[in-house]
Structures are given as structure tokens and as C-alpha cells.
What we know:
Layout: H1 2-23, H2 33-51, H3 56-70, H4 73-81, H5 90-112, E1 117-125, E2 131-138, E3 143-153, E4 156-164, E5 167-168, H6 169-184, H7 186-194, H8 205-211, H9 213-222
Amino acid sequence: MAYSKALKFLFTLSFVVILTVNGAARASESASPQGAAEFVEMLSQVAIWTSEIGDRSKKKAAIRNLIDVGFNFEVISQFVLGNIWYRTSAVQRAEFKDLFAEYAVDSYESHFNRISAITVVASNRVAHGDFLVQTTIDGASDSAKVVWQVRAWDSEYQVIDILIDGKSLAMIHRSEFTSVVQKEGLEKLMQALRNRTPTNVFMRVEDVERRSPHRQHQKSKRM
Length: 223
């Protein structure tokens, strides 16, 4: 039931996003903080449904669908690679974007098992017509303050960054990835992503959470 709900919603949302992005230039003035908040609420509901999927292969497929529809990996990949992006071919960009999305699925999969509730706290317009949607994500034993950076194309939205307790995942990936490229070359980074062995090279979501002052404070209170 959870799997079918998630797929049905994602199919509808993807149809709208594809029509909007392909058929209209960005026009952020038609978007609003409320619209961005509602978008994050819809993604959150799908994330909760996804957390209820028992079959691992179906769960990973649902996470990938959620990422493909709800996140703009063209924008994220360009930011993460920085100036390196402009020195890559179209083929390399397409492969990196796909590998990076798969890496995100692997990184986030375990977190979907722990989600019990996602609450939108506030939504604000920031520079360049983007929005920061503040949420609290409750798990089985603790919670995290998560901010979604959302960008609008016409009146439709996609996520371009996530901040966990103040730390930008896009910025962390940019620092880690560009460091690897500068030291060992782009092919080394691509090979690590192809082999699905980034744990020894890159900082994962779990590392961000462990280093978070908010999480350390929660741990000290439980002690």
C-alpha cells in the first residue's frame, strides 16, 4: 500500500515538473513561501510512505524516484563540482549526475527506516528567488532540524540543497568531491562512485549528524 501510494504521487508530481521545466523559463515571482512549504510537505509525506516499504529493492527504487522528481540534480551537480563542471564533457556530466543520485540513494536509505514524522516549521524567501523551508524530522529516538533549500521554476519547486542542523550537504559534498579531483583527478571520483565505495573517501550524512552540536546536546540530555 505504501509503495503504491508513493509511486502514484511521484508519477503525478513528475508529470507536472517535466511540463513546467521544459515548457517555461524560471519565473520565481510566481512562486511563494507557502507554495515551497506545501511542496516540502508533499515530499515529506512520500518519504514517510517510503519508510514503510518493507522490500529493500522497492524502497531503493522509491527513494530514487523521490530524488529524481523532488531534487534538481542538474543544479546540485553543477554546484558540487564547481569550476570542474565546466571542464567536463556532456557525457561526463550526465554520468556524474546519475552516479551522484545513486550515491545519494545509498547515503539516505538507512534514514528512511527511522522517519516517524516531518513537520514544517517555517518557510522564507531568500536570495535569487529561492526558499528555505525549515522542518523538524522526528525519528525513533531523536529529532533533527532540517532546512530544505527549494528553487522555483515558474510555480513548481525542486530541492537544491539540504541543511542538517545548519550544515549544507551540497557544500560538504563540494568540499569532499573537489578535494578528490584536485588530488587524484575526476576519473578517481567517478570510479569511486561507480564502485559504490564512497565511504572511505567522502563524508556521509551520518558524519554530519554525529558532528552536529544539536545532536551532541540531545545525547548529553539523555545521559
